[in-house]
Design brief:
D-Amino Acid Oxidase, Chain A, domain 2; eight-stranded mixed β-sheet; binds flavin-adenine dinucleotide; FAD/NAD(P)-binding domain; single chain; alpha/beta; globular; 433 residues
């Protein structure tokens, strides 16, 4: 991948293990001049590409505008953890929405995992997809009580019998960290190479006739009611019947309704050198997260590295040395890795909403989906399909999410950051206590 840090600056995508192991892909052209189509999609991550793919398969002419390159946002740089469900846990979801609505939303979210599996299989995307489970580690005795309640709620209210509890011995047999007091294992979880999955979606889009333009950031969006939309870039414009905003944390300036509901949070990842005995760290190829609010998450790669994300930071600016920044968090989880070399270090922006539920909906001819709050590796593909379904007249899935639209962050653009810093400091303190 060519380096185009300008659009997502300082977060080191070029130094990522994903860029180093990316499937070779064609260069997409830059938009120049005027184009017309049925649907214009802003953003070539999994949300935008899945929407484009499903819309094109149903006969629509589709153009995707990407400010950097395909997969340049969170979709190509995330931890690759497949965690069925939403960022908001089942117990909380039922408390907030009641059993029936919570169950309907949760069932859709679980569908996301199967959709990604099916797309990867049907489109023959080589993306190291592994579905051997996800383990959530407990750090405090109170977590164990919460995990029991969560497992009970999943089994009885959500009709989801795929999770099991582990005691301290079981958890530490699965993950060689002294930190875990127990765990909740979801047998349907797993992990994947997110960049190669995203590049595979892009290939399928091109095969289906979608035109993708790279290095073409959308800078203005005009709507003309039933007359459709016009999206402008610095070098051209696209007129279309509908637009989909799928820029997630990197989208600015096109829609206040969309921007005001997410907080971009920088998050950092390292990949170690290949380890002599990786399975000694994580047995059974599980994806692992812990119970902190600012989670540590880790898994093995196909070439035997530990890929580890974690650490809180109260400024949008990246640390000068990402590897050095993440290192203490790796050593906190795995003291036995003290002194190990990191071959790769990078970061990305996670978009978080006030409720930790995604923001999916429509505003006339403009549809949008974003704000998966750290759990969009598979939710994004589902959201893309829901947007395409809605364009086709089947808005049931979109409406389920639209009915729980997260509120805007208080303080608008001006106060979002200071309030965020305060909030993070509070949660980090809670993690430590
Ligand atoms: C470091 C990190 C780790 C994560 N780990 C996990 C994980 O392990 N599991 C999990 O489930 N989720 C994880 N996530 C979250 C997940 O990656 C995202 O929720 C998901 O990828 C969002 O997909 P998307 O397509 O909506 O957005 P993106 O993948 O960010 O795509 C948006 C695209 O839009 C483009 N864009 C933005 N504005 C414009 C514009 N004006 N014009 C043109 N193009 C534009 C961007 O360049 C980008 O390519 C992680 C995120 C990060 C950053």
């Amino acid at each position: 991948m060519a380096a185009v840090e300008g659009f997502n600056s300082g977060l080191g995508m070029a130094g990522s293990w994903y860029a180093a192991t990316a499937t070779p892909s064609p260069r997409d052209p830059v938009l120049a001049g005027e184009e017309t189509c049925d649907l214009v999609v802003v953003g070539a991550g999994c949300t935008g590409l899945a929407a484009a793919l499903f819309a094109a398969r149903r006969g629509r002419s589709v153009i995707v505008l990407e400010g950097g390159e395909v997969g340049w946002g969170a979709s190509g740089r995330n931890g690759g953890q497949i965690i069925p469900g939403l960022r908001k846990g089942a117990v909380e979801l039922v408390q907030a929405l009641g059993a029936e609505r919570a169950r309907a939303l949760f069932a859709l979210a679980v569908e996301a995992r199967d959709l990604v599996r099916d797309l990867a299989t049907d489109l023959q995307i080589d993306c190291d997809l592994t579905l051997k489970g996800h383990l959530l580690g407990a750090l405090k005795p109170a977590d164990l009580r919460d995990f029991e309640a969560e497992a009970e709620c999943l089994a009885t209210v959500m009709d989801y019998p795929h999770v099991r509890l582990l005691d301290r011995q079981g958890a530490q047999a699965a993950v060689a960290t002294p930190e875990f007091l127990g765990a909740l294992v979801d047998d349907l979880g797993g992990h994947l190479h997110p960049l190669n999955y995203t590049l595979g979606l892009a290939r399928a889009c091109r095969d289906a006739g979608v035109r993708i333009f790279a290095h073409s950031p959308a800078i203005a969006l005009e709507t003309a009611g039933a007359g459709g939309v016009t999206v402008r870039t610095s070098g051209g414009r696209v007129r279309a019947g509908h637009a989909i905003l799928a820029g997630d944390a990197l989208l600015t300036g096109l829609s206040r309704r969309v921007n005001s509901r997410i907080m971009p949070v920088a998050n950092y990842i390292v990949a170690t050198e290949p380890l002599a005995d990786p399975q000694a760290l994580i047995a059974g190829d599980l994806a692992v997260t812990d119970s902190r609010f600012v989670v540590d998450y880790f898994r093995l790669t196909r070439d035997g590295r530990l890929l580890f994300g974690g650490g809180e930071r109260y400024t949008p600016d990246p640390p000068p040395d990402i590897g050095r920044f993440v290192c203490p968090y790796v050593e906190r989880a795995f003291p036995q890795l003290a002194g190990v070399c990191f071959d790769h270090a990078w970061g990305g922006l996670v978009s978080v909403t006030m409720t930790r539920l995604p923001h999916i909906g429509r505003d006339g001819p403009v549809l949008f989906a974003h704000g998966y709050s750290g759990q969009g590796a598979v939710l994004s593909s589902l959201a893309g399909r829901l947007l395409a379904d809605a364009l086709d007249g089947d808005a049931a899935g979109l409406e389920r999410f639209a009915a729980v639209e997260p509120p805007p962050f208080p303080g608008g653009d001006l106060l979002r950051w200071p309030l965020y810093v305060l909030g993070m400091a509070w949660y980090a303190l809670r993690d430590r206590l």
